[in-house]
Write a structure and sequence with these properties.
There is one protein chain. 38% of the residues lie in helices and 16% in strands. It is α+β, with helices and mostly antiparallel strands. The protein has 2 domains: 53 residues; 198 residues, no CATH class. A 3-stranded antiparallel β-sheet has the order 1-3-2. A 3-stranded mixed β-sheet has the order 4-5-6. Helix 5 runs antiparallel to helix 7 and helix 7 packs across helix 10. It starts with a helix and ends with a helix. The relative contact order is 0.11.
Length: 262
């Protein structure tokens, strides 16, 4: 290895975050040409995990480290959302026995690259493309250590609890059980009224808004009293969330009997 190539490798080791994926485009931006990347791969300094993506040999990389590369290196607008976001922020009761789906949300135009979609991360990835909420509203960064992986911490973009529960409601009832989401909502006693207000005002899904307010009222969450309902557009007409459901006149929705009886 020439001195110049050795210096480039040293630079790579300095800027690379352990436990994360290195994208070929990012490596080029660090001064590692396509030919040099192939040289490093043959020499055992890089290990391919799919076209255009590498990891350090011996490095433990999970889906979190792969998502980090999509967010930080590729600039993709994809974030951890829904039940996964609630779990990542300490609500471990939402992890099902035997593993769990990982819910990633993005705008309609984003597409996960094949190397990410095809790699076996040990979990099922559910990529939800939607425009029912503004892209950045209610999304922040948290330090992530993965699911027990021995890696350095790194920041991931993730839905705040206020947005995450609405993302869960967006998937009901076809991909997320209403009773299950209600049980999640029961634990969200510290939602921030200001953030909830902003999300509800800018949410384009009447179903999500009505279900959110119905559940919050049924649970009697204290933060609900601080919302300005006059600024929240709940649409017109009735909404049947499930066939043959029980009609709730206040919110003009039909929901499962088991949810009304809880």
């Amino acid at each position: 290895m020439t001195t110049g190539n050795g210096n480039k490798l040293k630079k790579l080791l300095e800027v690379h975050t352990p436990g994360t994926v290195c994208l070929a485009s990012w490596l080029e931006a660090q001064g590692l040409s396509h030919d040099l990347q192939k040289h490093y791969r043959r020499s055992g300094w890089l290990e391919s995990i799919g076209r255009g993506a590498f990891k350090r040999p011996g490095d433990t990389v999970g889906w979190e480290g792969a998502l980090y590369a999509l967010q930080k290196q590729a600039g993709m607008r994809v974030h951890v959302g829904g039940r996964t976001a609630l779990t990542k922020q300490g609500s471990n009761q939402y992890i099902r026995l035997g593993g769990d789906k990982v819910y990633l949300y993005s705008p309609l135009g984003e597409k996960l690259p094949p190397w990410f979609s095809n790699y076996q991360w040990g979990v099922q990835i559910e990529h939800v493309k939607t425009a029912f909420l503004p892209v950045e509203l209610g999304v922040g960064e948290v330090e992530d250590m993965g699911y027990g992986s021995p890696v350095s911490p790194f920041n991931l973009r993730i839905s705040d609890a206020e947005r995450a529960i609405m993302e869960c409601l967006y998937l009901t009832p076809r991909k997320q059980g209403l009773v299950e989401v209600y049980e999640m909502m029961e634990g969200l006693v510290n939602l921030r009224p200001k953030v909830v207000q902003q999300l509800l005002e800018q949410c384009s899904s009447v179903k999500v808004k009505r279900l959110f307010l119905f559940m919050a009222a049924k649970i009697s969450h204290k933060w609900l009293q601080f919302l300005d309902m006059s600024k929240i557009n709940l649409g017109k007409g009735d909404r049947s969330i499930v066939p043959n459901g029980v009609y709730v006149s206040k919110f003009r929705i039909s929901v499962p009997r088991e949810l009304v009886d809880k």
